[in-house]
Amino acid sequence: xxxxGRVNMQGVVKRHGAFTALHGIDLDIQPGEFFALLGPSGSGxxxxxxxxxxxxxxxxxxxxxxxADMTHAAPGERxxxxxxxxxxxxxxxxxxxNIGFPLKMVRTPTAEITRAVREAAEKVDIAHLxxxxxxxxxxxxxxxxxxxxxxxxxxxxxxxxxxxxNLDAKLRIETRAELRRLQRSLGVTAVYVTHDQEEAMTVAxxxxxxxxxxxxxxxxxxxxxxxxxxxxxxxxIGTPAMNLLPAQLRDGQVEIAGTRLPLPPxxxxxxxGAGEIVVGVRPGDLRIVAGGGVGGDPDGNAVxxxxxxxxxxxxxxxxxxxxxxxxxxxxxxxxxxxxxxGEQRLKARHDNRxxxxxxxxxxxxxxxxxxxxxERASGRRI
Length: 382
Known about the structure:
Blueprint: E1 7-16, E2 19-29, E3 34-38, H1 45-53, E4 60-65, E5 68-69, E6 80-83, H2 95-105, H3 110-123, H4 139-151, E7 157-161, H5 169-186, E8 189-194, H6 197-203, E9 206-211, E10 214-219, H7 221-226, H8 231-236, E11 243-250, E12 253-256, E13 259-262, E14 276-281, E15 287-290, H9 301-314, E16 321-330, E17 335-341, E18 344-350, E19 361-365, E20 372-375
Helix pairs in contact: 2-3, 2-4, 3-4
């Protein structure tokens, strides 16, 4: 793995007038790492990337690249390459001229440019398109041209700002795998901005989750998925998103919609002082058991009746929580079942072996270890 390309941001603040876009960002990105900046629109991830590129000035804090202070360095002094969402290709130039442009700007000899362009184009499989212009390329080919232009200089740092967002779904899935292989073959540090958590989960070694100008969690995709730091991360990571259910802690048990369930063993001590909490359960951890006939009504009477019946039958046993099937998203080999539990809506993954009908009364269960517990007031993980 590369020994160059370490990035360190310490207390980075960015303001736009009275608005603070970044509230003291701290990041430590290792050489050769594929690191994702993930978050919803407006969370500060692209601003962070532009600061790394030197396209935005900081109002406070420091930016380091390989122990060199780059806080106020011009973009050309940073040895970084950036791929923009729009690709930013020159329409009047050929693919070869677009790829070679960064080398031409630093007066690289023509023969060396020709060799480097061919090498970069071969890495992204567009060597046969070098004579074309961007207008003659598909969206995927334009994206590869932009990638080749970024890697032609062999930079220390590779910055990617939502580079797959203009591609169709199938091509996006194919290209993200190729992008990961390319980064590995180059051994370059890559910082990748995306709002698509599935993209971040599949390509990143580690990721930082941004919310409202702050980094709320850093970790591997598995760590962030398995132990979200707060309810915002829990709701953002996962497809479909985690179900978040209001609950109470009573006598060492969790009470959800009148049904009491045992606490996860690991949470018993930590949850001792909590009262009003939020329980998170992944859709894939919910088990559905058919529990009655079809016939929900728009006034929610069937939901209320089913809830009351289940609560009476199951109180203290953990046998299940009553719900009504609203509709089923059939995916072929599986389904996403949309359910209503009182006024609460939630989703479950279902294997389709037992068909479910709209309006059907069911019971939901899950293992205590599948519960994620959060403080109701702060949203923090318990």
